Amino acid sequence: MPRSERSPLLLAGLLAAAGVTHFTAPRQYDAVVPSALPGTPRTWTYASGVAELALAAGVALPRTRKAAALATAAFFVGVFPANVKMAVDWRHRPAPQKAAAVGRLPLQIPLVLWARGVARNAEGRS
């Protein structure tokens, strides 16, 4: 299977795995929900888990891949404030945890670019 065909499936797998963890280990996500959002952190944790599972399904299916990949790119941008909150909250933790939290920030860029690339490659196959 060529890399261009594997890429959407790998992205879908990443989204699905992350979505599942929102339900299996929700406390870690609750902690990074910005307090400015209305409602409870658990509601946002579950909602983002559902969103990731839906995006995974959309990216996995060729018929919905382009739209789902573009929505995935927007989702990665949308969750960036949670990553910033985590980096701020973890600034006094031991160095490995602090490094992991800060390291997540620039990781969003390749994730957004990956999702956009999947969308771009899906255009010619629609």
From TrEMBL:
InterPro entries per record: DoxX
State a GO cellular component annotated for this protein: membrane
Q: Where in the cell is it found?
A: Membrane
Q: In what way does this protein cross or attach to the membrane? A: Multi-pass membrane protein
Entry's Pfam families? DoxX_2
Q: Which UniProt keywords apply?
A: Membrane, Transmembrane, Transmembrane helix
PANTHER family the record matches: DOXX FAMILY MEMBRANE PROTEIN, MEMBRANE PROTEIN-RELATED
This one is known as DoxX family protein
Q: Native species of this protein?
A: Streptomyces ferrugineus
